[in-house]
Amino acid sequence: MFRRIGRQVASRGARWLLYPITMVLAVAAIGGGYETVREALDARAYPPPGELVDIGGHRLHLSCVGAGSPTVILEPGLGASSADMSWIAPVVARDTRVCVYDRAGRGWSDPVDEPQDADHIAADLHTLLTEAHVDGPYVLAGHSFGGLYVRDFAAQFPDQVAGLVLLDSTASRVRPSAVNAQAPTVGRVLTVVPAVAHLGVGRIIASSDYESLPPDIQAEARANASTSRQLASTLQEYREGATSVQQASALTDLGDKPLIVLTAGTGHNPTWQSAQDRLATLSTNALHRTAADTTHVSMLQDQADSAAASQAVRDVVASVRSGKPLPTR
Questions:
Q1: I need a labelling partner for 50 at 20 to 30 A (CA). Which of 23, 181, 209, 268 fits?
Q2: Which residues contact 17 (CB under 8 A, 6 or more apart)?
Q3: How many CA atoms lie within 13 A of 256 on its CB side?
Q4: Going by DSSP bridges, is the β-strand pair 286-291/259-264 parallel, antiparallel, or unpaired?
């Protein structure tokens, strides 16, 4: 192409315009080819650890370990997948059955075109558990945005919830106008993301993440996070953020079902702390704990810091089994 431009384009200015365009096309071709090959290799190298369950039009990935009741369902936050629960799941599985899953477009789950707000996500989870014959009632543990989704689940399906654990959960009231003002921008980004991700950009973004996860999970987590469907799914959930906050607020009373609100000890302002305090008022059998020296991300992804989250889940499970109030420690 460079030779043909030099020979056939008489204008020097036109040649200098076409050369950069040709370079961009060449880089795009190389990046796209590389990403296509890598995604094919990754699919073979990292098969789903669980099962793909058809919930009507698309499949969701579900993986369960351990034995006992109640079953714990772990819900990761915005931009995260089941891999982010890799420190917590095996610890909780010592006491009871625990299931992790990937929302639509995450991990090994199929993408969808419908809105990814809390109502849709909670309904998908309910259908997934029904189709996979995972019996409730459940202890639901949600991190960050995942806290919105488990609260929405508890509002929609109260009889299927035995207890809740909110791990540094999104709680503050978001003005719809503030997020709606960003919707056009996010919508435009959504149209570009798949194309950009197919050029390998997602792989570059994810290259430095997940280093604190278990060694055997790190490469798998990066591979999944690099795909266009994962990036698009994250933006879809972000775009529906204000709607999800409103939908989750439908849960106003858990009665005396055990609830632990666990807040990261660093990285938050007083407004966030106050919102966490309000979450603890949802149940008469509730505790609000602060995990000292823990950040929003390290609460899940760091082995030592995740111990507080694992213990919170185990304490709620014990309270459900015994019918006794949560321990105050």
A1: 209
A2: none
A3: 6
A4: parallel
Residue 140 has φ and ψ, to the nearest 5°, of -105, 130
Distance CA 67, CA 274 (A): 37
**H helices present in the chain, as ranges:** 2-8, 12-45, 88-92, 118-131, 145-156, 176-180, 183-197, 201-206, 215-225, 228-239, 241-248, 270-279, 298-301, 306-322
Rounded to whole angstroms, the Cα distance separating 312 from 260 reads 6
Question: What SS3 state is found at 293?
Answer: coil
pTM of the model: 0.81
The tokens for 238 are: 């972000």
DSSP character for 174? Answer: P
What backbone phi and psi angles, to 5 degrees, belong to 214?
-55, 140
Task: Give 147-202 pLDDT, tens digit per residue.
Answer: 999 999 999 999 999 999 999 999 856 444 444 444 454 444 444 555 555 555 55
Confidence band (pLDDT; 50, 70, 90) for 276?
very high
* CB-based contacts of 58, cutoff 8 Å, min separation 6: 104, 109, 110, 111, 112
Rg over alpha carbons for the chain, rounded to the nearest Å, is 22
C-alpha 278/C-alpha 270 separation (Å) is: 13
Q: Report CA-CA distances (Å) from 260 to 89, 146, 172, 215, 289.
A: 17, 15, 17, 29, 7
Residues β-bridged to residue 141 = 74, 165
Q: Each residue of 236-263: pLDDT tens digit?
A: 898 899 999 999 999 999 999 999 999 9
The confidence score (pLDDT) of residue 189 equals 46
Out of 51-55, 181-185, 192-196, 306-310, least confident range: 181-185
Yes or no: say if 101 and 63 are a contact pair by the CB < 8 Å rule: yes
